[in-house]
């Protein structure tokens, strides 16, 4: 699992203080124009788009492919190798109605110390996920398991998210951040450069909010605190 930050990585602690919007703002400043946003992924567990649930961790990536894909099926179950502190990221060909992930997967992930799972597709067993109190972000729900149509072909290798006009690569160890706003990926290579920008942006926006509440226009506040 090369390239993965250690669980005690100090960047993880700092990221706890920021929202997905803060991360995206910093990445835009670094010319990553989509801000690392992974479109279409929303919170389903432990609540549906509600509460203070937040996940921050290095990506542990899983790639599903159609069963006729020439690559061999992964020889063991990916869920048994999830590192503590990781965010499980499951990717597949867009558009399938089969669920890629279920309640037993979260049971094992939680027992291994994972902080949450992000499914770029459908998942199932919503009641089990919520009973576990385990964070799951996904595109939608489903009922049918992946086995009839799909197989896992790669684990802890780069995966692509190609949706809504965005083509984003997630590498093992990249930071995934999820909250009620959605999910963003912070490339590990940009993290140290992005963190100071987040702090400056949050401070500027806090000052803007105070002055706007006093009657200052947004335009004037922007010029004063963001320029």
UniProtKB/TrEMBL annotation:
Keyword Magnesium appears in the UniProt entry: yes
Keyword Transport carried by entry: no
Residue sites binding Mg(2+) per the record: 124-125
Alphabetical list of CDD domains matching this protein: RraA_family
Binding-site residues, substrate: 102-105
Co-factor requirement: Mg(2+)
GO molecular function: 4-hydroxy-4-methyl-2-oxoglutarate aldolase activity; metal ion binding; oxaloacetate decarboxylase activity
Keyword field: Magnesium, Metal-binding
Gene3D superfamilies registered for this protein in UniProt: Ribonuclease E inhibitor RraA/RraA-like (3.50.30.40)
Protein name: RraA-like protein
Source organism of the structure: Parathielavia hyrcaniae
